[in-house]
Amino acid sequence: SSGINAESQSGVDIHDAGKHPFLYVVKHDTAAEVGTVAREVIVDYLRGSGRMDRDGSNISILHNIGRCGSTLVTSMVSKTKQCHVLSEPIALMDVVNILTNKERAITRDAVEYFHLLKEVLVLLTPDPDKKYFIKTHSQIIYLLPLFHQVMPGMKEAYMHRAMRPTVTSMLRAFSDMGPFWIMEKIFIPQMPKNVQKLWLENRVAEFGNSIIIMTLANIHLYLNETKDRNDMKSFSYESLVADKYAFCKSLFQELGIGVEHVDLALTAMEKDSQKNSVISKAKTGASKVEVTEEALEWGKTIGRTLGVEMDGHDYRISNIQHSWNSQT
Fold first, then answer.
1. How open is the CA angle 13-98-212, to the nearest 5 degrees?
2. Residues 6+ apart with CB under 8 A from 67
3. Exposure of 61 in the CB half-sphere (CA atoms within 13 A)
4. Of 150, 208, 247, 250, which is least surrounded by CB within 10 A?
5. Beta 31-35 vs 4-5: how paired, if at all?
6. Taking Cα atoms as reference points, which of 328, 264, 260 lies closest to residue 75?
7. What predicted TM-score, i.e. pTM, was given to this entire model?
8. Cβ distance 124 to 134 under 8 Å?
9. pLDDT tens track for 150-175
C-alpha cells in the first residue's frame, strides 16, 4: 500500500485535537493519509470550491456499540470493492473530543457544531463521484444527532449485540490495558449529561459496569434519534450469525451495494477481521474473563431508566427499532 504524508511543523503536538482538529490518520483499507493544515485554510478552500454543498448521498456510515461484528461487516464491504472503506477514522474521534468538551449539548439544533463535522466528512470523502463506507468507533455515537443535519443524503445504519457477549468481549479485549480510573476519566465525561448523572448516582467502580453504562448510553442515543426517523435501520450480530446471507443482502440493500456481491463479501468471514491486532480472536478467546450477573442486573435496571429494555440470558436489547428482521 502507499501513504500520503505531510509533516507537521516543529513543536506541533499532533495529539492535541483541540488545537489541531485537522490532523488526520485516515484508514483507506491499508493505506494511511496524514496531514496537518490550519483550519481556516481548509475552510476557505472547501467553501470556495463548492465542496460544502454536498448532501452526502455517496456516503454510508455504520454506527455501532463496539465488539458487535462491525469490523467484520466492514471487511465484507471492503471485499466487494464497491466502496472506499474508512474504518474508525481518527478525525471523527477528534470531533467527538472537541464537541463533548463544550458546554453546549450535542443536539440536532446545535447549529454551531454543524460546520466542523461537515468539514471533516467532506475531507474524509473528497471525491463526490465515489461511494464511501465509514465504520465508526463506538464513541462517535455522541455525534449521531448531527450527521443527518449536516448531510441529509447520507445513508446511516446501526449495529448492536446482546449485552452479555458485548461486555464480556470488551472485558477480554481491554480490561488489561489500563486501570479502571483511566476508563472513567476519559470516556465517562463524553457521555450525555443525563447519563453521566445516572452513573454518578449508581457508580460501581468496576470495568464491567463502566462498559455497560457506555453501551447503554450508545443505545439510548440511537433510540432517541430514531423516535421520529425510519431511515436508519439496525442490524444485530445475532441476526448475522443466524442467517449470514440474509443479513448481508439486507445490509447491502441499505447501503446501495448490489446483492450480486454478497457471496464474495461472505468470504470475509473465513478470517479473523482483527487478526493482527491486540484484540484478535486468538487473544480474546484465550481469556476466561466474564461479565458478572450482578453487573448485568445493575445494567438492566439502569437501562430501564434510559428506555433500554433487555431480556433473555444474554440480555438482548428487546426494543431496538427499525430492525430488518423483527426476530433480532
1. 110
2. 161, 165, 166, 169, 170, 173
3. 27
4. 250
5. parallel
6. 264
7. 0.87
8. yes
9. 999 999 999 999 999 999 999 998 88
